[in-house]
Amino acid sequence: MVALDKPLPYLNMTPMQVVTALVILILGWILTKVIVSSFKHGLRKTKLPELVVEFLAKFLSMMLYVTVILLAVRALGIGVGSVVLGISAVIGLILGFGMQDTLTNLAAGVWITALRPFDKGEYISVAGHSGSVHSVGVMATELLTPDNVLITIPNKLVWGSPIANYTRMPTRRVDVGVGVAYGTNLNRAVKIAMELMKGHPLVLDSPAPSVGITTLADSSINLQLRAWAKTEDYWTVKGDLTRGIYELYREEGIEIPFPQMDVHVREMSR
Fold first, then answer.
1. Given its phi and psi angles, is residue 65 left (phi above 0), alpha (psi -120 to 50 degrees) or beta?
2. Class of domain 15-99
3. Taking a C-beta distance cutoff of 8 angstroms, is the pair 176, 242 a contact?
4. Lowest mean pLDDT among 23-32, 64-73, 82-91, 244-253
5. Helix, strand, coil in percent for the chain, rounding step 5
6. Which of 164, 148, 146, 174 is nearest to 231 (CA)?
7. What are the extents of the domains in the chain?
8. What's the CA gap between 154 and 142, in Å, rounded?
9. Is 14 in contact with 4 (CB distance < 8 Å)?
């Protein structure tokens, strides 16, 4: 029978110490889950955004897991000071090899959470990617695209790039471009477009809708319908106006030309 207080062969620790360390790890893992869950539940009762709640919960979880590991190491009879010193040496080695991205991502995550250029669920474009904010972790930000693709971007790239937030403001301007043929009565074309926008139930009266003549292109005179709508109605209004202006111009005999090129062939005399 193995004595629980007798050191194991080749190891400077007893079976009791090993068992104690395992118990600390198991109980610590369970307690961490409970504490983090209660922490998140308490924060959700405040006015803090969901994005901040998740970030703080992940940060607390990481700190608690580190504490549990240090307690387990101490139960094995290993000096915690030496472990911390060893971890510091490893961190120094990592930084020496130019892998300081971990700390940079952590710092960027703190700034993102503190200044909140976006919140969970908002639709943004950053670092060449677009999607709804799924979460901001300690190291990376996750975006969910409309076709259900999860994109993970390191926090340092998010914080170091321009961020376009499409859903932060309560209203957005809906722009719909359309070209009409040269020779078209522009006043009539503009009037039809204005009536279409003013008659749409989701188009706001203020700011008032407008139509701009934007370009004298090669094959058409380009117009732009500009209507304001609530942000949540943006895509509905854009789709309705695009379909509506096409159908109205077709009914009214206003030509929407397609790009074309005239080629003149000249016969060379011999």
1. alpha
2. mainly alpha
3. yes
4. 82-91
5. 45, 20, 35
6. 174
7. 15-99, 117-165, 171-251
8. 9
9. yes
**166: its two tokens:** 């499409």
Overall fold of domain 117-165: SH3 type barrels. (2.30.30)
Helices and strands, counts by H and E, the chain = 7, 8
Q: Give the CATH architecture of domain 171-251.
A: 2-Layer Sandwich (3.30)
Sign of the Cα pseudo-torsion (31, 32, 35, 41, in order): negative
CB-based contact 131:123 (threshold 8 Å): yes
**Rounded distance, CA 268 to CA 197, Å?**
54
State the residue for tokens 């188009």: 203
pLDDT at 92: 58
Q: How many angstroms separate the CA atoms of 64 and 36, rounded?
A: 9
* Residue 241 near residue 200, CB atoms below 8 Å: yes
Residues 6 or more apart in contact with residue 262 via CB below 8 angstroms = none
pTM, whole model, 2 decimals? 0.65
Q: Please, what is the end-to-end C-alpha distance for the chain in angstroms?
A: 114
pLDDT tens-digit readout, 40-96? 888 777 777 777 777 778 878 878 887 888 788 777 777 656 556 565 555 555 555
Tell me the Ramachandran region of residue 127: left when phi exceeds 0, alpha when psi lies from -120 to 50, beta otherwise.
left
Residues ≥6 apart with Cβ < 8 Å to 211:
190, 193, 194, 223, 224, 225, 226
What three-state secondary structure class fits 221?
A: strand
Mean local confidence (pLDDT), 175-192? 96
- What is residue 263's predicted lDDT score, i.e. its pLDDT? 66
- Name the nearest CA neighbour of 196 among 251, 257, 248: 248
Tokens found for residue 4: 């629980």
| SS3 call for 260 | coil
